[in-house]
Design goal:
- The complex is a heterodimer of chains A (about 280) and B (about 425).
- Chain A has about 280 residues and is α/β, with parallel strands linked by helices.
- Chain A contains 7 helices and 13 strands.
- Chain A has a 9-stranded mixed beta sheet, sandwiched between helices. In chain A, strands 2-5 form a two-stranded antiparallel ribbon. In chain A, strands 3-4 form a two-stranded antiparallel sheet.
- The longest helix of chain B is centred in the C-terminal third of the chain and has 20 residues, at about 315-335.
- In chain B, strands 1, 2, 7, 8, 9, 10, 16 and 17 form an 8-stranded mixed beta sheet that branches. Chain B has a 7-stranded mixed beta sheet with strand order 5-4-12-13-14-11-15.
- Chain B is about 40% helix and about 25% strand.
- Chain B has about 425 residues and is an alpha/beta fold.
- Chain B is globular.
- Classes of the chains: A alpha/beta (about 280), B alpha/beta (about 425).
- At the A-B interface, helix 5 of A face strand 7 of B.
Chain lengths: ~280, ~425
């Protein structure tokens, strides 16, 4: 079993600020973290490895500063890390990024065939959720998005069963390997690295792949040139006017607190209130 | 299989980095353990870098270290409610390289410093907290245990550079918990302003910077100081007071900082700026008499964790780097001579400290904290009197100068009496001689 996890290093949204004039993200001085959704992808891959054995390679496209993110993935238990990095990749949109990562995964597959690719459902800086599907399409892999649970992977039958969160419920899906899975938040609990794993991570060699190593065939499809996306305007959302309300609470009399809370809530929805009153007095 | 190193350094601040750097450069195997996400993520300082201590470690640091501005002007302000009296020292000599002092941003600087340590060959584990020291049957420290699975890591010596409240040393019983009367609590804000605004407000060009150190009314009769430092495109402003004073007066540092920012002499300097960072830090200001035992079988304390701070001169990080370096040099000598890191052998660390400016300066001011604490007039009465005196002399209002002089003298006598004034002069001389 060879699993590839694609991760991205993103600015920590807890520290992020938006430029008041240009509305772009100000990255300067903001600490970088692994995209939180990708942590669930890493954990899902590691749990499969724990169960079935195999090899987990973590991969990222980005500048050399992204190396700590890959090292952290190794500390959690990934076996190998590849940073796909080249000046020509700069300025990539999701189309160009998925082209580069798909090429790199295809090249990696020549070392060791890839059975599964995991990613987070989306990144917190772009929020597009497009790179995972883009990779799957280019590699002609089965695509499973918004997965909340891996139910079963059968290496012999080459099949995978997952639970997928969909509007109105949960879908249980089965498909054939190789497949690409994008993981939902909360789908698992990310492990805490042991001391030996920490040592392994700081001593590990993170492989740096340039365009040649990654097997890029068409240089026109990478970086800014390979990115048809045009950002025509960036704007901040209008803050909502809703405000929190305070309900006085008397610990000695929870009933009256509940009653006054209900009263306040029903005041907003006269229709429901009327209905309730009618039901209460059936006569 | 457990890991074993020559030396484990706990902490990646200035003291830990200086120690690890020196040890690694000498070819020893060094493990450095940092609790923060990256070196600098948890470290707080004013912050001023005194070039000298770093230069002794990394002579060409200026070529790659992230420095904000070199300081060409030092201001000393004694504040009253609405005024200040003070002195400014500015010199063209300070503008000529090599510069002597710089403002820095610790998150950036510590990262750079740590990169140098790792390039020198030390191994760094981040996001890892040391929970205990490991000891052999004789009680000699032989390693640490970290808060992760299989967390025992061994070493011939452990250098503790884990900061002001040194949890590791305290928990291991190597020193007492820091006392409120030996610790200052300082808070600071980083306020962003356009570069040009800072240059204009402080009369600066290029990479030049200015600093203001402040005492007086802003601390509400508590033992403490305020500061304002210019960075490239921000201002670090902060205030610190002894923890025991804050406790007694039930004042929060935030209130002090807000009061200071509103002072009519300070408000215009930061007007229009955007506060983006807020930090608080404990500073061990007990001085010489509060120093704990500094070494023992297999262990040494360096930097803040030992209390190496010269509160009078606002020096700390340079003492941290110097003591880190001296501890490392002691160990290097022992390893070279194949001697164990026993308490008897580590006593050479103490001799090195005594011979350095660190102990000499701490000894010189050993009486100062106590004197100022017992004699609050230095913190409130004199600042007010000095400001009044200046006001009286400078204001032109038809009163003749001899009478003004008498008014000033009377004011001093009324507040402190003639004997009190003489006593105060003697006390101050004795505390700083």
């Amino acid at each position: 079993m060879h699993i590839v996890v694609c991760i991205k290093q993103v600015p920590d949204s807890a520290h992020i600020r938006v430029h008041p004039v240009t509305n772009t993200i100000m990255r300067q001085g903001v600490p970088a973290i692994i995209n939180p959704y990708d942590l669930f992808a890493i954990e899902a891959a590691l749990r499969l490895k724990d169960r079935l054995g195999g090899h987990v390679t973590v991969m990222s496209m980005g500048p050399t500063q992204a190396e700590p993110a890959l090292r952290k993935a190794i500390s959690l238990g990934c076996d190998d890390a590849i940073l796909v990095t080249d000046r020509v990749f700069a300025g990539a949109d999701t189309l160009a990024t998925s082209y580069v990562l798909a090429s790199a995964i295809r090249t990696l597959g020549q070392e060791r065939p890839v059975d599964l690719v995991f990613t987070g459902k989306q990144t917190i800086d772009g929020d597009t959720a497009q790179v995972g599907p883009g990779i799957a399409r280019r590699l002609d892999m089965q695509l499973l998005t918004y997965v909340s649970r891996i139910v079963e992977v059968d290496p012999a039958k080459r099949s995978i069963v997952v639970e997928r969160r969909a509007e109105g419920g949960v879908q249980v899906l089965q498909t054939a390997l190789p497949a690409l899975v994008t993981m939902l938040e909360g789908s698992n609990e990310v492990r805490f690295a042991s001391t030996p794993d920490m040592f392994r991570a700081v001593r590990a060699t993170v492989r740096h792949w340039d365009r040649n190593d990654a097997g890029i065939e068409d240089i026109k499809q990478v970086g800014l040139k390979g990115s048809p996306t045009i950002v025509s305007r960036v704007f901040g959302p209008t803050p909502r006017a809703e405000k929190a309300r305070q309900v006085p609470f008397d610990p000695a009399d929870p009933d009256s607190t509940a009653a006054s809370l209900l009263e306040q809530l029903l005041a907003d929805v006269p229709k429901v209130r009327k209905e309730l009153e009618q039901r209460r007095s059936p006569s | 299989m457990s890991e074993k190193f020559d030396v484990i350094v706990v902490g990646a601040g200035p003291a830990g980095n200086a120690a690890a750097y020196t040890l690694a450069r000498a070819g020893l195997s060094v493990l450095q353990i940092e609790r923060g996400e990256y070196p600098g993520s948890k470290n707080v300082q004013g912050a001023i870098l005194y070039a000298d201590a770093l230069e002794r470690l990394i002579p060409d640091f200026r070529e790659s270290a992230p420095l904000e501005r070199h300081i060409v002007e030092q201001r000393m302000w004694v504040l009253d409610e609405e005024s200040y009296i003070g002195g400014h020292y500015r010199s063209a000599e300070f503008a000529r390289p090599p510069h002597n002092r710089y403002t820095i941003v610790r998150a950036r600087f510590d990262k750079w410093f740590s990169d140098q340590v790792q390039k020198a060959g030390a191994l760094l584990l981040c996001e890892t907290t040391v929970k205990a020291l490991l000891r052999d049957a004789q009680g000699k420290v032989i390693g640490v245990e970290v808060e992760r699975d299989e967390g025992r890591i061994y070493a011939d010596a452990v250098v503790l550079a884990d900061g002001a409240n040194s949890l590791v040393a305290t928990r291991a019983g190597l020193r007492e918990d820091i006392r409120a009367e030996h610790a200052a609590l300082a808070v600071k804000e980083v306020i962003f302003l356009p570069r040009e605004a800072i240059d204009a407000r402080f009369n600066l060009t290029g990479q030049e910077g200015a600093v203001i150190e402040m005492v007086g009314g802003i601390t509400h009769r508590m033992l403490g100081t305020g500061f304002l430092y210019t960075n490239k495109d921000s201002i670090s402003i902060g205030i610190g007071c002894m923890l025991s004073d804050l406790k007694r007066q039930r004042l929060s540092p935030v209130e002090l900082l807000e009061g200071m920012k509103a002072h009519p002499a300070i408000a215009p300097l930061i007007a229009g700026g955007e506060p983006r960072e807020y930090a608080a830090h404990l500073i061990p200001e007990g001085g010489y008499d509060a120093l704990p035992q500094l070494y023992g079988d297999g262990w040494m304390l360096v930097g803040d964790s030992a209390g190496f701070v010269n509160a009078m001169h606002r020096e700390g990080s340079n003492l941290a780097m110097t003591t880190g370096q001296l501890a490392a040099e002691t160990l290097i000598e022992l390893f070279r001579d194949k001697q164990p890191a026993t308490a008897a052998n580590l006593a050479r660390y103490r001799s090195r400290l005594d011979a350095s400016f660190v102990m000499k300066d701490l000894k010189k001011y050993r009486r100062l904290p106590g004197t100022l604490e017992r004699h609050r007039q230095f913190l409130a009465d004199y600042p007010a009197l000095l400001n009044q005196a200046a006001h009286t002399m400078i204001r032109v209002d038809g009163v003749d100068k001899r009478r003004k002089e008498k008014e000033i003298l009377d004011a001093f006598r009324e507040r402190r009496s003639l004997l009190g004034l003489l006593g105060d002069a003697f006390r101050l001389w004795r505390a700083t001689r």
